[in-house]
Amino acid sequence: MNIRDTSALLAGVIADVQGSPDRRELPIQRVGVKGLRYPLRWRSAGGEQPSVGRFGMYVALPADQKGTHMSRFIALLEARLAADRPALDAAGMRAMFGEMLTLLEARRGRIELSLPLFVRKTAPVSRVESLMDYDLSIVVEGDDDSPVTTMTLVVPCTSLCPCSKTISEYGAHNQRSHVTVSVESAEPIEPEEIVALAEAQASSELYGLLKRVDEKHVTERAYENPKFVEDLVRDVAMALRRDARVRGFVVEAENFESIHNHSAFARIES
Amino acid sequence: MNIRDTSALLAGVIADVQGSPDRRELPIQRVGVKGLRYPLRWRSAGGEQPSVGRFGMYVALPADQKGTHMSRFIALLEARLAADRPALDAAGMRAMFGEMLTLLEARRGRIELSLPLFVRKTAPVSRVESLMDYDLSIVVEGDDDSPVTTMTLVVPCTSLCPCSKTISEYGAHNQRSHVTVSVESAEPIEPEEIVALAEAQASSELYGLLKRVDEKHVTERAYENPKFVEDLVRDVAMALRRDARVRGFVVEAENFESIHNHSAFARIES
Amino acid sequence: MNIRDTSALLAGVIADVQGSPDRRELPIQRVGVKGLRYPLRWRSAGGEQPSVGRFGMYVALPADQKGTHMSRFIALLEARLAADRPALDAAGMRAMFGEMLTLLEARRGRIELSLPLFVRKTAPVSRVESLMDYDLSIVVEGDDDSPVTTMTLVVPCTSLCPCSKTISEYGAHNQRSHVTVSVESAEPIEPEEIVALAEAQASSELYGLLKRVDEKHVTERAYENPKFVEDLVRDVAMALRRDARVRGFVVEAENFESIHNHSAFARIES
Amino acid sequence: MNIRDTSALLAGVIADVQGSPDRRELPIQRVGVKGLRYPLRWRSAGGEQPSVGRFGMYVALPADQKGTHMSRFIALLEARLAADRPALDAAGMRAMFGEMLTLLEARRGRIELSLPLFVRKTAPVSRVESLMDYDLSIVVEGDDDSPVTTMTLVVPCTSLCPCSKTISEYGAHNQRSHVTVSVESAEPIEPEEIVALAEAQASSELYGLLKRVDEKHVTERAYENPKFVEDLVRDVAMALRRDARVRGFVVEAENFESIHNHSAFARIES
Fold it and tell me: Is residue D10 pLDDT above 60, yes or no?
């Protein structure tokens, strides 16, 4: 469907309030739609998976234009995410960004997508398989020639406190932590690669399904591998630095402390 | 994979703490896993759609049993939601409930699933199509012979205030509202039927994509059709009463008032 | 301010749409306002504390009445929570419930209040003091003669897995858990009593501020005191049963597992 | 209590793991505690009010230091928010920031506080008074000599769609919107000033309590004063530009559209 032609047609019948000129001389960096939920098939290194994404889509508006055409964002999603179209991936997000600028007649813009990423994992001893879920978001922002793509993953893991281990005769407090990694890269990086990179630095990684032999293994692994929140962000940052594709990153770690009702938190930005 | 056999095997090597007897003489009505997120394909009246569900799975535990076998719940999800299995639907939820009781050797239990439901809608004048999203949850609870299935839908809609319309010379405050309908039924009801039933009672229904001719239509329709929160719950309750399949229901309406920073709320239970 | 007199006055000038009769013959169990946030001073066993409460206030509406008078709920909160009025406590909630029924000319109703409860705690070895926060909610519901008051506390604590401890050569996974206790009582119970009762059953309680000697103590205490989610609900239920004031209760425990990305959950109702 | 002396004492008995040197040569920009909830009295232009704040407190950690001293953040909050200390205000936040750097022996840091702000408002016609609640956050960040204070307010208001009004024979869709204003200023600005500035640009402001004469007034006022999300951010940005104290700002507007299930959104940064 040609949305702009339809709009032109309607413009003869019903006033186009958004299309009128604006005299406040204030450009708007970002205007669009937020909180759009859509079913889709997602594709990355682990293959294709059913998913539900939440989208934000925005364009820059010049100072002399009163408003943008909100319905065109929805039309673009409808067209791109139709059931007979290929699964969405990071490259598809980049292509959709270009189409959005064209359709909205804009020079700059921003697309945000948040969705769960499911990774099939194998338990360390029993080898039983199960899915783990991570929160993935992808932002494409800039102009059509050189937009920047930023990928963010929230990687839940176990952290075990080095202090607690050292000072206690037995045991050590441990807890679920969130390691959040944002990466801007020169070449494409698969989200599953970032998950694996972050998990390798945790006291232990998490699994959906563990048999008793696995539970023994992850318990002992965490105990052998204590990490402060400071260690988590430093070790993940070191691993990102060794990857030549990474141009910039932010690493955050939040420990939902099992001995407090607040979190320990650290952040490194590069 | 036969989980129980594997467990039996492991029991010889590693202590089965959950399997030991309990002396507190307290049965537990509900024990299991909560907050499990899984990719799936959902099927109801509108066809099949990619989705992500959040599951809670619980069984009753007799007084003399110390603990349940948490990993079996995950194994069941893994088996039932595998990519080569049919899409999940309400009947599939009922079947999974039975399998859970068998696998967990339990007499009573409860499965909860929450997922978004997407419905393809046609704009009232331009006939342009788009998806609308609703929150759907399904609970199956009871024993294996006669479990009760409850379906709940959160249906966002427009409400326009009758008082504001009557007392004002022009305009009337209106806002987004959530009509939440829980239905227990003797025969299956499709979630799309409940959506349509609730939307028919709103000041206006919502759409993803509206052209200007449609926006004029829904604006005027809402103005012609003012409803208090009390009207919303009564009118939806009346419609549910006319449906012979419905055995019991709860209807709630929450108006996110556009003139206040709180909600107006009403609830009818039958 | 006498709201009803003012309303009567206005009724002569501006149509009273809510006051008109209704012909659908459907009583409404609950209609009112939701999500009202108010500053207040809270008083319970631990003394008076600055607080912010979130209120829901509802009345039953007879079948022949079109709507309730929403503004009267707000007027009641304004009057009751004025800065020069005494701090709010559980008895004050009960009194406010009665005033609400009178003001709204209703026979039945429901008031809900959610607020944080802060308890001053002393670290187990260093004796250093700090505050811990809990979520408290109080619901008063019924008619004016015999309303039922239900108090619910979310008590965060540590749980350490008995299975993990038994099968592992060293360490044991542990995590933050939420024990949620709802109590309906014949005589008043202070929320701080419920907090203490629940914490006594955890692997360890939590603290805001711990010195290293304290961290050693809570780590070892949790290791000596492993609990499944099933143990948590049973042990809290046993303690509630021993309290003659308790007429009914619900106990839930949710472990935010440090080896999984989902929760273990149990619930006992009595 | 002198926390550092106590720490020194304990260091002789129990290993100080955090205090050991680090060899990864990676400074950490931000390490500390997050999600701390505390009761407090807040003071700004509208006077003193009971409140509950949520704090994040972080310092920069040099490359050669393994960890920070988490318990000192809590000790600072305990000391500063004690019941016998003056109410907290923006200047108090700035002072607490300096104390934090000293106590943690850090050169740079960041304090975040989020709390509700309650403003007493007078209904436009009846003059009846009630409270409105806003979300306020204050961030102090930088070094001790020239930290930057940023104040952010989420101001809920009514927006009425100019397009819907123009094209419809009667009515116009309107909805609750959030105008979010972040301000960095050379001189102190009271949060209540930002609230008033933003509300003046909305189609209408919101109130807790409105009588029917007021409801008529705000309904008609919104209808006379339609605003797109683009208009909201531009008009608020223009007002901020006229205030000589403002050094930089971000203005966002999100309309929770009453005809869609998604938001319209705009953002201006200066």
Answer: no
CA angle D11, D17, D19 (to 5 degrees): 75
Class at the top of the CATH hierarchy for domain C21-269: alpha beta
SS3 (DSSP) at C207: coil
Radius of gyration of chain B (CA): 23
- Dihedral (CA of B1, B5, B7, B12) sign: negative
* Chain C CB within 8 Å of residue B268 CB: yes
Q: What is the pLDDT of residue A25?
A: 87
Return all residues near D219 (Cβ < 8 A) that are at least 6 apart: B164, B167, B168, B171, B172, B173, B259
Chain C residue with the nearest C-alpha to that of D49: C39
Among D18, D52, D132, D135, most C C-beta atoms within 10 A, so best to mutate, is: D52
What are the phi and psi torsion angles at C138 (to 5°)? -130, 130
Looking at the complex, report in whole angstroms how far the Cα of residue D92 sits from the nearest Cα belonging to chain B: 29
Residue B153: what are its φ and ψ, rounded to 5°? Answer: -125, 135
Instruction: Please report, as a single letter, which amino acid is at residue B225.
Output: N
Whole-structure pTM value: 0.94
Closest CA to B242 of B207, B211, B213, B200: B200
Mean pLDDT of C69-88: 96
Residue C220 CB neighbours (<10 A): 18
Domain ranges for chain B? 21-269
- Touching C: which chains, 3+ CB pairs < 8 A? A, B, D
DSSP collapsed to 3 states, chain B: CCHHHHHHHHHCCCCCCCCCECCCCCCEEEEEEEEEEEEEEEEECCEEEEEEEEEEEEEEECCCECCCCHHHHHHHHHHHCCCCCCCECHHHHHHHHHHHHHHHCCCEEEEEEEEEEEEEEECCCCCCEEEEEEEEEEEEEEECCCCEEEEEEEEEEEEECHHHHHHCCCCCCEEEEEEEEEEEECCCCCHHHHHHHHHCCCCEECCCCCCHHHHHHHHHHHHHCCCCHHHHHHHHHHHHHCCCCEEEEEEEEEECCCCCCCEEEEEEEC
D86 pLDDT above the threshold of 70: yes
- pLDDT tens sequence across B196-253: 999 999 999 999 999 999 999 999 999 999 999 999 999 999 999 999 999 999 999 9
Assigned token pair, D228: 């797109």
Share of chain C above pLDDT 90, in %: 88
Is the predicted ipTM greater than 0.85, yes or no? Answer: yes
Residues of C in contact with B30 (CB under 8 A): 265-267
Euclidean distance between CA atoms D110 and D138, whole angstroms: 10
Contacts of D90 (CB under 8 A, 6+ apart): D44, D138, D149, D151, D188, D191
Give the residue-averaged pLDDT of C82-88: 94
